Amino acid sequence: MEIKIPKIKKIDGGEFWMGSRTSNYSSETPYHKLFVDSFYIGIFPVTIEEFKYFKMMNNSNFSKKIEIIQSNNEPATEVTWTDAIDYCHWLSNQTSENYRLLTEAEWEYAAKAGKDLFHPTSTGKISSILANYGNNVGSISPVGSYPPNPFGLYDMAGNVWE
């Protein structure tokens, strides 16, 4: 099994509105303007195949439940924060590039594609055609099953909880 390097994209920095004007969740407020510097992001979420390879190379077990239920092209789930950090460090060592987790602001900027999208989809609207939503909730789709957002990033809305 050969290491799969995630497809990444440079996102030019910029100013955007972070948070939500209409949310009932305090974690999504206050709605405020913020600037982020340029950064790189994976075009797709990390897949089961990519994460299994990392775990295998580090003599770690991957959840048997996940191996049985999910296909290799679905996003990795039940990954701890520590596992995600370890994956970034391992990938950095394998490629001599600097991989890291995004900040909350970088993730939201990427998800909203630098715009004031209400939902991080290709149109800013939400439907079962644009994201794993509605009747699809409860199942996981292979990465890239839905249209990308305006930055060309897939699965920023729906599919799995980040």
What would you say this structure looks like, in words?
The protein is α+β, with helices and mostly antiparallel strands. The protein has a single domain, classed as paralog of FGE (formylglycine-generating enzyme). It is built from four helices and four strands. The strands form two sheets. Strands 1-4 form a two-stranded antiparallel ribbon. It is globular and about 45 Å long.
Strand order of the largest sheet: 1-4
- Tell me what portion of residues adopts beta-strand conformation: 5-15%
- By DSSP, the count of extended strands is 4
Strand and helix order: EEEEHHHH
Q: Given this structure, which CATH class is correct?
A: Alpha Beta
Query: What's the average pLDDT?
Result: 87
Sheet/helix structural class: alpha+beta
Main sheet properties: 2 strands, antiparallel
Whole-number tally of structural domains: 1
Work out the helix count: 4
Q: Quick one: overall form?
A: globular
Radius of gyration: 16 Å
Helical residue percent?
Answer: 10-25%
- Tell me the CATH superfamily: paralog of FGE (formylglycine-generating enzyme)
Which fold name corresponds to the CATH topology?
A: paralog of FGE (formylglycine-generating enzyme)
| Euclidean distance between termini CA atoms | 27 Å
- Low-pLDDT windows of residues: none
Characteristic terms for this protein:
two-stranded antiparallel sheet, paralog of FGE (formylglycine-generating enzyme), 162 residues, alpha+beta, globular, 24% helix
